[in-house]
Amino acid sequence: MIGGLDVSYVKGDPVTACVGIVVCLFPSMKPIHVHTEIVQMTEPYISGYLGFKEANTIAEQIQHIKHERPNAYPDAFLIDGNGVLHPRRFGLACHVGVLTDHPTIGVAKSLHFVDGVHKNIKARCSTLLIKPGDVVPLSTDSEEIIGMALKPVAGVKNPIYISVGHRFDLETAVWLVKTCCHYRIPEPIRLADIYSRQHLQRMGFSKS
User: Fold this and answer.
1) For residues 75 and 18, what is the distance between their CA atoms, to the nearest angstrom?
2) pLDDT per residue over 81-119, tens digit each?
3) Which of 2, 11, 32, 186 is spaced 20 to 30 A from 71 at the CA atom?
4) Distance (Å) of CA 57 to CA 190, 202, 203
């Protein structure tokens, strides 16, 4: 089982949010458990420090599933955010993984500017990401590979950016994310985003 995690905020409110967690069977991606919870974030957002704002709250919701629905506790979590593809090599996916001591992978929709990783990356991706499953290594100025750009499915122009969060190697992380993609965003994260936004709407909040 693979879990996907996303946080949706109330429009114009940086504090009130909904944590969405969806657990899917692997590899079918059939959802078997949905957890949504309205939360109040206690820390401000500072660029590059998203983990300090969200990680503790996310970890609490993960622990809720572990204790209340142990049969639906996934083998790993895909997190909407970065892992080691981060200026301090410790993005949200790393933070959550360490707090829960559970395997995590960061899947980002946009690229962090990290130690030269961004250099010529748009041109390289445009040239090298031709068919679904194609990847481009994301290397720093010191030639350390800290992530992969992936073309997840046909007909998608923009790649997604995969990096290790906790207790994964990059090769396995990329394979797992590829297998989870029916659309651009891996299915567990895509569904977590949908359900978290729907829950905000049901509770009378405007979606961000």
Assistant:
1) 23
2) 999 999 989 999 999 999 999 999 999 999 978 888 877
3) 186
4) 20, 21, 19
Number of helices (H), then strands (E), in the chain: 5, 8
25, 190 contact by CB (below 8 A): no
Reported in sequence order, the residue ranges of 10-75 that DSSP labels E, i.e. its strands, are 16-24, 31-40
How many C-beta atoms surround the C-beta of residue 20 within 10 A? Answer: 27
pLDDT over 90 (residue 135) = yes
- Please give the structure tokens belonging to residue 94: 């790393």
Whether CATH 3.30.2170.10 fits 2-111+155-202: yes
Q: Cα–Cα distance between 152 and 18 in angstroms, integer?
A: 26
> 0.85 cut: is pTM over it?
yes
